Amino acid sequence: MAIDTVLLAVGPMDTVRAEELAETVLEIAAPLEATVVIGHAFTEAEYEEFRENLGFDERVEDVDPTAVAARRPPVPDLEERLSAAGVETEVRGALGDVGTEVVELARAVDADRLIVGGRRRSPAEKAVLGSVSQEIILAAPCPVTYYRDLDVME
């Protein structure tokens, strides 16, 4: 199976591990000359919380998720790091249930590999709070590389 497109799904917690995620992506994408799609799915509540900080006047009903994703950390930093390494990048945004939207994004870009970060949670926390990463892993249409950062706290 050739790897032509890698989807790197990120969220706001990934800002602290952007460098490590970029290195992980480069290990896969650079030698294969694969395109990396940096995807950021966010909820309506997250958009409303950050829209003024991002300089958007539009309400959630009128938003272009890709325009928001392109300006939402850690996307600009990741795009810069990957481009500097000679990897072709594209940014995609999605609005809705994060797990569902990431899986749909993987389908939409025909991803051959999906990279997703996560944090350490106990089984009880996962049962009560759920796990977006686990939801993505179980529903993804392609192989998933899971980057677990034990240093990232909730």
Automatic annotation (TrEMBL):
Superkingdom assignment: Archaea
SUPFAM superfamilies: Adenine nucleotide alpha hydrolases-like
Positions of the UspA domain: 4-146
Gene3D superfamilies in the cross-refs: HUPs
CDD domains (alphabetical): USP-like (cd00293)
Family: Belongs to the universal stress protein A family.
PANTHER family, sorted: STRESS RESPONSE PROTEIN NHAX (PTHR46268), UNIVERSAL STRESS PROTEIN UP12 (PTHR46268:SF6)
Name of the protein in question: UspA domain-containing protein
Source organism per UniProt: Natronococcus amylolyticus DSM 10524
